[in-house]
Amino acid sequence: MNEIKKDTYQKWEESGKLEEKLKSVQELASRHVKQSDIAQVLGITEKTLIKLKRLHPKLGHAFQYGDEELKNKLIDAMYQRAIGMEYEETQTIIEETKTGTKKRIIKSKKRAIPDIGAIKYLLIIKFGREFNDRKEELDLIAQRIEKGEDVWVNENSDEEAVGVIRVRKQSPK
Q1: In 3D, which of 115, 108, 123 has the Cα closest to residue 80?
Q2: What's the Cα-to-Cα distance from 114 to each of 41, 72, 81, rounded to whole Å?
Q3: Which residue has the higher pLDDT, 1 or 123?
Q4: Residue 154: which region, alpha, beta or left (left: phi > 0; alpha: psi -120 to 50)?
Q5: Do residues 3 and 39 touch, judged by C-beta distance below 8 A?
Q6: Is the dihedral angle over the CA atoms 127, 132, 135, 138 positive or is it negative?
Q7: Which residues contact 135 (CB under 8 A, 6 or more apart)?
């Protein structure tokens, strides 16, 4: 008989290993592991992985969920830096005494001060131009473009983009 050859994804599905593989992909993607390394962990070539992602949306979604998880972790880390955070520092001291070696562990709680760069970044991303250092300059450019006083030229062509604005407008308060 003419038997249809199954791809690796279908074999994982048939053997009950698919969910485990998808979780591995998601977890590795969330740690910013390269696609070639993920393929190696899965026991396939990167070329096969690319083909499987194209053929099976669930695999592509596992990469997307991993990327989303990574993004959320990074945003959370940025937020923690912006507001300052408490952390525990552990110091291990090994001392030689008459009776032998003595190990002493010192734990201390410390507080990291808020990072102004992280604060500014999050304010600009979340609340827009009003927190940008160059707010006045951006407002002037936007006004000049709206009035048609500024003409932006694409240096790679002879085209002119009259009145093109690339700045996000703020909603009135």
Answers
A1: 115
A2: 39, 19, 6
A3: 123
A4: beta
A5: no
A6: negative
A7: 129
Contacts of 33 (CB under 8 A, 6+ apart): 41
Q: Does position 158 have pLDDT exceeding 70, yes or no?
A: no
The model's confidence at residue 125, banded by pLDDT at 50, 70 and 90, is confident
Strand spans (E) along 39-98: 85-97
pTM over 0.70: no
| Number of residues written out for the chain | 173
**At 26, phi and psi to the nearest 5?**
-60, -45
Q: Are 110 and 89 in contact (CB under 8 A)?
A: yes
DSSP string, 92-143: EEEEEETTEEEEEEEEEEEEEPP-HHHHHHHHHHHHGGGG-TTHHHHHHHHH
- Provide the pLDDT confidence category of residue 87 given band limits of 50, 70 and 90: confident
Take residue 13 and report the two structure tokens written for it.
Answer: 């599905």
